[in-house]
Amino acid sequence: ENISDFSLNITDCTQVVVPEEVFFTVAAAGILENLLVLIAVVRNKNLHLPMYFFICSLAISDMLGSLYKTLENIFIILCKMGYLTRRGDFEKKLDDAMDSMFILSLLGSIFSLLAIAADRYITIFYALRYHNIMTLRRALVILAIIWTFCAGSSIAIALFSYEAATVIPFTILFPLMMFFILCLYVHMFLLARSHAKKIASLPTSTVHQRTNMKGAITLTIFLGVFLCCWAPFVLHILLARFCPHNPYCACYMSIFHVNGTLIMCNAIINPMIFAFRSPELRSTFKKMFCCAR
Amino acid sequence: MSALRLISNRTSQQASSNSDYTWEYEYYEYGPVSFEGLKAHKYSIVIGFWVGLAVFVIFMFFVLTLLTKTGAPHQDNAEPSEKRFRMNSFVGDFGRPLESERVFSRQIAEESQSLFHFCINEVEHLDKAKQSQKGPGLENNVHFQEVPRSSGMFEEDVNCLTKFNIPNFVNTEQNSSLGEDDLLISEPPIILESKSIMQSSHRILD
Q1: How far is B174 from chain A (nearest CA, A)?
Q2: Which residue does chain A place closest to B167, by CA atoms?
Q3: Disulfide engineering: B45 pairs with which of A244, A252, B5, B83, CB 3.0-4.6 Å?
Q4: pTM of whole model > 0.80?
Q5: A278 to B168: CB separation less than 8 angstroms, yes or no
Q6: Sequence ranges of the domains in chain A
Q7: Is the Cβ pair B33, A12 closer than 8 Å?
Q8: ipTM of the complex, rounded to two decimals
């Protein structure tokens, strides 16, 4: 029987380790990709539209997430090499700052996705009035409000993470936002379906059954990617708060670094499914790279 | 994340040794966990979570696929390309704002026609007084090949035509056929010939 205080039993769930090289590569790829999106939008005057500003906001929050992980990695390496102590005051403050950056990134991602979905919703259902409803100025104001709220919440959560109360709203916000975004997109979908039906009933229309799948695939990819990348981490926070001593929970928490890598993968995938689907942005990229050569 | 450190603020156990991997910075302070007498597999939460997530995503996909079944029979296109119903290319242009130079191309002109109908139907919901004031000026605007950016006539229509930018999240193929990806709000049937377009627009606006 192994009843030892030093829990190094064979049956233990040891931390699943992600190699540093993988971590750095994934983080760097995420940062670079999102930086490219930002530069492309800034440089091309045609992309100064509310839709692209929201995509930029998503790119910024992804960049923050990857940046957080990179800094944390560097921090740990410095601790290992002895340049920083683990219990010092400065390190704790730095730690808190990095935690708030991470929460900022998560909240920013959620709200950016919500803004993108709302923008598309308005584009489709209020198309003619879209340019009056969603002016550039309003879009910037909305983004300012979102980021101020996220910054305030992240600082508050990081400072008050001792309390249970901070974890619960954080974990409720996540599925709530997901559900709301899903509702917006499903409504858009239903409209598209009804119009497809009407168009298909015309004598001169061409309907290919296979394209019916495209919208479903796109939407599933959107929400599926976000869910698969962020939900493991959110569950981790819940379990760490409520059952840290349960062996099942402890085994789940041992894959913490895999969850962190997933979040960085989300930073890489998001530009592909949002930004790069725009032909204008793609042509801006080509111009950028062709001029660079 | 070291917020977790604050949740379990134990310093009694230094489970971490220097020979351990660097990742164990402050994450091992959960204290000793007994792994004896486990009824289920120790990774059951991990497996259960991922299986549940996969099932949910697949379920969502099937629900969305069911929603998109149009139920219309497959029809072959025997029409020549000029008279071909150009909704598909309109659908494919979602991601691209209609810049003024594009309006001048013939292909886009046909798209603009369908767009115009789309705009017209929304116009019906707009203020009547506004429409009647600008009614006479419509003739200038019906020539899609020359629609100016700042005609002032139905500002929203013109904006709609020149800067319409529906997000391309459902379909980005240039020549994709119509599926549920069509996001027009116009009511069928949509007449393609320019003459009847002018007539109908006059009718609506007068």
Answers
A1: 10
A2: A120
A3: A252
A4: no
A5: yes
A6: 20-284
A7: yes
A8: 0.77
